[in-house]
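Hypothesis: this fold can be encoded by more than one sequence.
Test: take the structure tokens below, design a sequence, compare later.
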């Protein structure tokens, strides 16, 4: 059986390093809080139309670079490729 490897361009953040990341993230949160910024978290997937509307339905990005699937109700959903569109949707 072939060995499963992580995807090229990604890395695992293992114990030891993950604590360093957590400390850095806490520091960043403290600085952001001091400037009255607040955190916003959007779902990991959105309706495909949200991304297609911004970049065009027929572009290579929509057809080749985004993971799209149908939910149980046959709505087309896409894993979030970036944060801009979901944040704008949340605020509008």
């Amino acid at each position: 059986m072939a060995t499963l490897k992580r995807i090229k361009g990604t890395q695992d953040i293992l114990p030891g390093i993950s604590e360093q990341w957590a400390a850095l993230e806490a520091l960043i949160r403290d600085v952001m809080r001091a400037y009255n910024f607040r955190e916003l978290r959007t779902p990991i997937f959105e309706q495909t139309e949200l991304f297609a509307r911004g970049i065009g339905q027929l572009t290579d990005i929509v057809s080749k670079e985004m993971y799209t699937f149908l939910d149980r109700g046959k709505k087309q959903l896409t894993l979030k490729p970036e944060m801009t569109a979901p944040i704008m949707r949340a605020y509008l």
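The first helix runs from residue 17 to 34. The radius of gyration is 18 Å.
Hypothesis status: open.
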